[in-house]
Amino acid sequence: xxxARTLLWSIVARVTDGAVVIVxxxxxxxxxxxxxxxxxGRDVVITGRDLERTIAAAAAISxxxxxxxxxxxxAAPTDVAGCLSGIGAVARLVIGAVDRDxxxxxxxxxxxxxxxxxxxxxxxxxxxxxxxxxxxPDASILLFGGLAQRRPYPGSTTVSTxxxxxxGLVHTLASELAPIxxxxxxxxxxxxxxxxxxxxxxxxxxxxxxxxxxxxVTMDEVVDASxxxxxxxxxxxxxxxVDGGWLLR
Length: 249
Ligand SMILES: NC(=O)c1ccc[n+]([C@@H]2O[C@H](COP(=O)([O-])OP(=O)(O)OC[C@H]3O[C@@H](n4cnc5c(N)ncnc54)[C@H](OP(=O)(O)O)[C@@H]3O)[C@@H](O)[C@H]2O)c1
What we know:
By secondary structure, the chain is of the alpha/beta class. Helix content is 42%, strand content 17%. Strand 5, helix 6 and strand 6 form a beta-alpha-beta unit.
């Protein structure tokens, strides 16, 4: 009985001890993930670059969990510490921010490339660095990469590069931060996400045709896999593809 009580207490403690912080949570997949955690009763903090816009996004999410807003620009990593200073204990940390540069090596925009590399690699790492003292040993971290690292598309030069970097970042953080778990998620083209949903059919038809599912993956499917990576206590150091089998063809 004592053991059962201890187990119950440890489960309750794990669920209630610390917020779910979602960096880049004002839009797309990560906004959907914030909605799922808030609906489960978890306290959530979402971030975006603009405080008013982030407050509006947070206010539109229904509880029962509380949803707080915080403004942080990962392309300015030296400012990250101050921006995150109001956040308390963190149980789950998700970093999914992106500002795609649509770059190519033939027509290379160095300023845009530096911005995205800074955001995704230095910015992601600095968020973990700053929040580390607020993460318990049983906390977990999820970083968003993407399959542009192995399936480039026109304009994905920097996106492909940084998403490849996320794989290495997951490996080094899982090793450095043990026993905190660190995983990465690498979606294929997510058909109903804001960036892709209004693309002309011709852009998406070729990708759909190469996907064994016969359709593109959805935001809900990526969110479901994200929750698995964040909550399954045995999964660590994994870079998980969610692509409907796209890489097989
Ligand atoms: N959608 C896909 O098909 C797909 C495929 C593969 C991988 N992914 C990855 O999955 C993640 C989510 O993608 P998504 O398409 O759902 O995202 P999204 O809708 O484009 O949202 C991007 C988020 O990043 C924030 N953001 C942008 N620039 C930022 C900066 N400099 N600093 C901090 N935050 C910033 C935005 O906030 P504000 O605009 O409010 O500032 C927003 O919350 C990304 O990491 C992306 O690379 C997506």
